[in-house]
């Protein structure tokens, strides 16, 4: 049983990964997306903890995770998940949102035996003429960071990439965590979003996998979800009618129902 205490695990490169453990039931490792930390799961944390022992990870470079080296690679984050999974009391499920879903794809390609099932919500990567970032976005974003205006950078991200008005988001407690992690978007955008899944990468996947995509999200998210689902043997693609990239905030009850429908309890 998790009581909300903080667990620290050591990843393959020596980085310390902080994980909040809360709830009871089968283990479920949750990896948040860009410009966030484990508090991203606050809208669904209490409901999910009634059914699962949640391992809420602070992805490297933010929150309780320390020792992140200057040289970034997607594979380092995958190794972080492997280290967290090894600390679970049972073979965990994996829940990844946004960039956390990209990490989940790399985990399925390299270490699928470390998890029992994977539910991935809109993994973002460029595919089939669809791009995650508009031309010049990351350069303009970096300029705002260099000028010390994280607020403007983050608002630009929500408008230009996620396609929503950031004003309601600014009122949420997660906004401060997003500001603190704003700089990590650059490395994920320049390196991680080059990820391109191919069928040969997932030949060893034999666990349940479901990819979720909202019908109101920017087209690149749906295209990437379709590509990921088609590359993974037996994977299911589910379209969420009327939902966007931030379903966790807009419809937390519906999000929890999807978790309960998919993961065994």
Overall description:
With 265 residues, the chain is an alpha/beta fold. It has one domain: Alpha/Beta hydrolase fold, catalytic domain (Rossmann fold, 3-Layer(aba) Sandwich), CATH 3.40.50. It is 39% helix and 18% strand. It has an 8-stranded mixed β-sheet with strand order 1-2-4-3-5-6-7-8. A hairpin with a 5-residue loop joins strand 1 (2-10) and strand 2. Helix 2 crosses helix 3 and helix 4 (137-146) runs antiparallel to helix 5 (150-162). The longest helix has 14 residues, at 74-87. It is globular. The model has no long low-confidence stretch (mean pLDDT 94). InterPro entries: AB_hydrolase, AB_hydrolase_1, AB_hydrolase_fold.
Tell me the layout of helices and strands.
Layout: E1 2-10, E2 16-23, E3 27-31, H1 42-49, E4 53-57, H2 74-87, E5 93-97, H3 99-110, E6 117-121, H4 137-146, H5 150-162, H6 167-170, H7 174-180, H8 184-190, E7 209-214, H9 219-231, E8 236-240, H10 247-250, H11 252-262
Parallel strand pairs: 3-4, 3-5, 5-6, 6-7, 7-8
Antiparallel strand pairs: 1-2, 2-4
Helix pairs in contact: 1-11, 2-3, 4-5
